Amino acid sequence: MFRNEMPRYEILSEEAMETLDKGWRRIVSELGVEFALPEAVDYFEKAGQRVEGAKVFLDPEFVLEQVAKAPSEFDLQARNADNTVHIGGDHMVFAGVYGPPFVRRGDQRGDAHMEDFENFVRLGQSFPEMDSAGGTVVEPEDRPLDSRHLDMVYALQTLSDKPYMGSVISAENARDTIEMGKILFGKGSDPSVRGLTPPLDGPVSISLINCNSPLRWDDRMLSAMLEYNRANQAVVTTPFLLMGAMSPVSIPATLVQQMAEALSGIALTQLVQPGCPVVFGSFLSNTDMQSGSPSFGTPESAVGLLCTGQIARRFNLPWRSGGGLTSSQTPDAQAAYEALMTMLPTFLAGANFVMHAAGWLEGGLVSSYEKYIVDIEILRMLKHEFRPLEVHEDSLAFGAHEEVGSGGHFLGAAHTLEHFRTCFYRPLLSSTENFDRWSKNGGADAAERAGRIAQETLDDYEQPPIDDAVRDQLRDYVARRRIELGDEPIPSPSF
Amino acid sequence: MFRNEMPRYEILSEEAMETLDKGWRRIVSELGVEFALPEAVDYFEKAGQRVEGAKVFLDPEFVLEQVAKAPSEFDLQARNADNTVHIGGDHMVFAGVYGPPFVRRGDQRGDAHMEDFENFVRLGQSFPEMDSAGGTVVEPEDRPLDSRHLDMVYALQTLSDKPYMGSVISAENARDTIEMGKILFGKGSDPSVRGLTPPLDGPVSISLINCNSPLRWDDRMLSAMLEYNRANQAVVTTPFLLMGAMSPVSIPATLVQQMAEALSGIALTQLVQPGCPVVFGSFLSNTDMQSGSPSFGTPESAVGLLCTGQIARRFNLPWRSGGGLTSSQTPDAQAAYEALMTMLPTFLAGANFVMHAAGWLEGGLVSSYEKYIVDIEILRMLKHEFRPLEVHEDSLAFGAHEEVGSGGHFLGAAHTLEHFRTCFYRPLLSSTENFDRWSKNGGADAAERAGRIAQETLDDYEQPPIDDAVRDQLRDYVARRRIELGDEPIPSPSF
Which backbone phi and psi does B312 adopt, to 5 degrees? Predict the structure, then answer.
């Protein structure tokens, strides 16, 4: 797991922080935040906050008291203990793209299918750069809406032995995710006693709870969140901020809105279950005011990222942001510079949980096989770059200078021969071939080579072992629940 | 002109700096530095340094005394005073790619011609992101080697009214650059009195003096450098460090070598002409130890950049590094992430003079029209990003939140309507079009769109006005010198 021991790049002065601090306090207390789930409003009302219908007017000090109950770091367990990750501190955890209804492979773009879902889970499992395959790596449009979460969780649990993200469509779906987690972690021997199985020992799933920005938490996501909180499963409360649409066309205004939304959501989690694991989420970019389309990999989003890290640390919370975001329609130069324009600040700011770390294309509408590999290369480079530089007498290699002297070369120096295998970053995708060799080898650009690497990775994929009894219980659970949800039975997958 | 008022990202501890400091002192005093020009050696010997043949063993304190005479910042004049730039402090000056013998446009790659040279000067003139077209924007292979510098300087002086870089092939070429500078700046009314014209008031050219690393300064470049020093024209003394070939396979070892080389070169400039303008240069990347090829846009080179900035500031010197470097053969995803992997640290480190800021492809062998536009977009984004964020009461736009409330949108809010034209970065190249519109518009990727923008820019190019008499003098000078150098006369260019 990657620890970022390099300095954080912080750009907000103490004075700016104080101005922002006043801003969110004013929003939550004067404008209030809407919680579209009566149960959530009840929690606040019982705790003495002023309520008008679905709107809760929050005392900022009360919010901070609740927020202080949230853990500043926690472990997220994987079924393979070697893959358990730590969320918080200087740790950075990377998960794949989340949510696209479409998939792109080469020049083909179309609806995403369950087969694609499985493939992106396999890619997430295969690359050590990824700590989690993610959650909804694509929306499998060939499966019925009300039961596809079962297929997704099953694939995440069985094709990968890394941590996974849960379903957030409804309380019902969250309960399914939790029950399947219990089965996977040996707590759910009898699927017929759903809800009565012993609790999980800690978080085995992490789930994305988006705010319906501005200043509104929706009922379905909230009801899912409450289930996760009660089961001590991690959630990421995330303001969804495309400046110009969901927030004002000002970064400071958006930052205070983000604080108001994230902190109010986090306060609720701690009312439901004090000490339950929660991550300060941020999804902050801007609208292209010429086209009206969302715009990703922008300078504004990079600045927002740097500020968000500084803000989340102030509240002593682990935080989520960043990724390889882009508006580009293909895995071209734009896709690459926009992805890195987001991912490099992600490292500079030390984000703890990074969704969309690989595969994101076309504003998040598309999961791209080629872009996945481009992003893996970017991640590999940055993980190499963000290691403290060791400077000591030995590292100066004075002997090499003595050996080579003036005007010579170091290719055959003893120091070089000793270190050449490990001294530098070795690319996965990038080519340094000279033009003649590159041309003779077919003259493939990075996107074409990336497509090949993705396919080779899928060809070489090996499913991590899983206990047959556990797999059978999961299959039974999925089959039974699918029928309960009113969908036609289908054969269990072969994996 | 761009000032980088954001914080510098510094990664070397004081202890690490001290270790590096000891390192370069040991190299210059124990191993010595070779100066392959007897005149240069004489300067050091007369100043009391120990000399063995071409090798000079330097007292580190003596080096620092000389270095302290160099200005920490200076103006580089342009013939259009509005384009004069400041080198040093928090200023960042951007110049185009330098040196490629080949050119690439679309799928065509071939020898660079004078026409390409002129085109890349026109591009440098056209984009406000560029402070200088550069110098050898390509090597015009269709012109004779010994007089092509005249054609290049003439094109730089007349097609652009921004500062330019001089020829460094020989003392003779440097003298031509200086004389043509005098003509351009109204000092050289009579071309027959070459060398006797009044001196320039300050730097009107900046020239790249590379070290033949390791630890060797070559005679031709040194002789050019001495001419520039005596004429108070700026030079960039640049260790040329591809780790594994020209320096050890260790970043700290390379940093101390870089200090030894750059500082010894700078010391010489100040012996020749105390107070003459000089820039601490850095060109630091690594060899791909698998292919043996140079590798650009690497993590190592990014780390080297961050360290070099910190080191140069310690010596109170303006410094040069960075650019949009890549090993990629085409303007693809690799070209883009590698370029930004160098350019973003260039901003984080606050490089004062940035060569290769646009157009670099294929390890510097190729000037690419499309890559030029990709790099311009990257520069525009970073210049937007590296502006201090203004956080004050007004920027919180509380009124917009009051207006929109919970669950609404900001597209029509008064605050949005007031600011939408200028609130966000507006791309030149990047597309946010949705898939249908993008497809209907031809589905061009970033490289194809970049090619179109390059051509449109050239089509729209307007030559900046120049005094007819000055132009005639420059033409006469070029024509006369071409014959003196033994080449056939050719008609003066139409511009």
Answer: -65, -40
